[in-house]
Automatic annotation (TrEMBL), chain A:
One of its GO terms (biological process) is jasmonic acid mediated signaling pathway. This is SKP1-like protein. It holds the Pfam family Skp1_POZ. It comes from the Eukaryota. Involved in ubiquitination and subsequent proteasomal degradation of target proteins. Together with CUL1, RBX1 and a F-box protein, it forms a SCF E3 ubiquitin ligase complex. The functional specificity of this complex depends on the type of F-box protein. In the SCF complex, it serves as an adapter that links the F-box protein to CUL1. Belongs to the SKP1 family. The keyword Zinc-finger does not apply. It comes from Eleusine coracana subsp. coracana. Pathway: Protein modification; protein ubiquitination.
UniProtKB/TrEMBL annotation, chain B:
SUPFAM superfamilies: F-box domain. It holds the Pfam family F-box-like. The gene is ga04541. This is F-box domain-containing protein. CDD domains: F-box_SF. It comes from Eleusine coracana subsp. coracana. It comes from the Eukaryota. Residues 20-61 form the F-box domain.
Length: 174, 268
């Protein structure tokens, strides 16, 4: 887990970058982990984010960013291997366990993660959170889906359209 | 640093899926695990309906979620005529059974276990479908027809004597199968089998390429086992068309017809 810290007192071999959340918390992480974000990757390749500069992320708050980085740090080694064939079954099982645990969170946190993953373009995380929402939807009726996902109540016209559509595909609801 | 005003506004907006960018919502819908879930989701709101009906979306969905192969038919040489053996794909036991609710199997697997030449019987306990055991049919197995677009109902076809009997389940009477029509078997001449030769006909599962509406696949075997030919028979027009004979017939879980029609262009 990346703890908020400032400065660059790291003497290790791995290059570190600093990310700054919307509420001005600084996160120092390995460049390799942050580079899982397509959005950040170019900046980092250009040498950005090092030293005292930091890369500001005005649309990600610190709670969400810390969660995002937890994901990136865990997944960075596997990504560095490029879907490596030498990844053992144990490693993969461990990542899967981590992923399942990772999305076991409140819906509001999940939604923040969805937006962050989208804005930062972190492919694996995008799929992971999308899958989680999809799992919340499956097996539910349209009204249940709306309630689960916090859609506003349908207007009378919407309700009529929903009813017509459900009638048309009645067999899907048997 | 320069703040992107649009992004700030977006962050302030109450977190709700409907106000998220369309590609996020599309991404979520792509992760749904079955066409049935997709169809249900499409009832939820107008935007989703529009997204799901998109040809490109359906093609992507299909490439992500191939219809699982339930198992294979093999024709075995059993005394006088080939006996089809259904061999479930091993992971069927674990994946299909756990991932799919019975209603997800648009054409129920249990139908595979209905046999006989009269009224299809209520199948044995459906647990059998998943047990992974081999099942030998005493008689030619039923073949499935995709439902005609009109009534959206599936048909079961049996080979009975010199006739093909087609059963349908009338709307509103779930469970009861009624004989809908009876079509004479194609003659040896029409099948191109030398009339001097004895031949026998069998029904087979349509392969994914020829599960068109109202089609049924016939296997004609004559003389030695080597001489096997397959035909697609259009029940409505009574047209016969020679097709490739496959030794084993994969059985995939078919798509609901409405989605299948939308995605016909993206056939795998």
């Amino acid at each position: 887990m990346a703890a908020p810290e400032s400065g660059d007192g790291n003497n290790g071999a791995a290059r570190m970058v600093t990310l700054i959340s919307s509420d001005n918390t600084r996160f120092e992480v390995e460049a390799a982990a942050a580079s899982l974000s397509q959005t950040l990757q170019l900046t980092i390749l250009d040498g950005g984010g090092g030293g005292g500069d930091g890369i500001p992320l005005p649309n990600v708050d610190s709670a969400t960013l810390s969660k995002v980085l937890e994901y990136c740090i865990k997944h960075a080694p596997a990504a560095a291997n490029g879907g490596a064939p030498n990844a053992t079954a144990v490693d993969r099982a461990e990542l899967e366990r981590f992923d399942n645990e990772f999305v076991n969170i409140d819906q509001s946190v999940l939604y923040s993660l969805i937006m962050a993953a989208h804005n930062l373009e972190i492919e694996g995380l995008q799929s992971l959170v999308a899958k989680k929402v999809a799992d919340m939807i499956k097996g539910k009726s349209p009204m249940e889906i709306r309630r689960t996902l916090g859609f506003p109540d349908p207007t009378p016209e919407e309700q009529a359209e929903m009813n017509a559509h459900m009638l048309e595909y009645g067999w899907a609801y048997e | 640093m320069a703040r992107d005003p649009e992004r700030v506004v977006r962050k302030k907006a109450d977190m709700d899926l409907q106000s998220m960018p369309v590609d996020i919502q599309e991404h979520i819908l792509l992760q749904l695990d079955s066409p049935i879930s997709l169809l249900r989701a499409s009832s939820t709101c107008k935007l989703w309906r529009r997204l799901i009906a998109g040809t490109v979306f359906l093609q992507r969905f299909r490439s992500l979620h191939r219809p699982p192969v339930v198992g294979y038919y093999h024709n075995t040489n059993h005394l006088l005529r080939p006996v089809p053996i259904f061999k479930p794909v091993p992971p069927v036991t674990t994946t299909i059974a756990s991932r799919y609710e019975p209603f997800d199997l648009f054409l129920p697997l249990e139908w595979l276990w209905m046999w006989g030449q009269g009224q299809p019987r209520k199948p044995a306990p459906s647990g059998d479908c998943y047990s992974g055991r081999q099942h030998a049919f005493q008689r030619p197995p039923p073949s499935f027809l995709s439902p005609p677009a009109g009534d959206g109902e599936a048909r079961v076809v049996f080979l009975a004597g010199d006739k093909l009997n087609i059963f349908a389940r009338p709307k509103g009477r779930s469970g009861d199968w009624m004989l809908e029509k009876s079509v004479p078997q194609p003659s040896a001449v029409r099948l191109g089998v030398p009339s001097a030769q004895r031949f026998s006909l069998g029904l087979s599962m349509p392969s994914s390429a020829d599960t068109k509406m109202g089609m049924v696949k016939l296997i004609a075997s004559s003389g030695q086992m080597k001489k096997l030919a397959a035909f697609n028979l259009n029940i409505e027009k009574k047209q016969l068309k020679r097709t490739e004979y496959e030794k084993a017939y994969p059985i995939r879980l078919p798509w609901p017809p409405s989605l299948h029609a939308c995605s016909a262009g993206g056939e795998i």
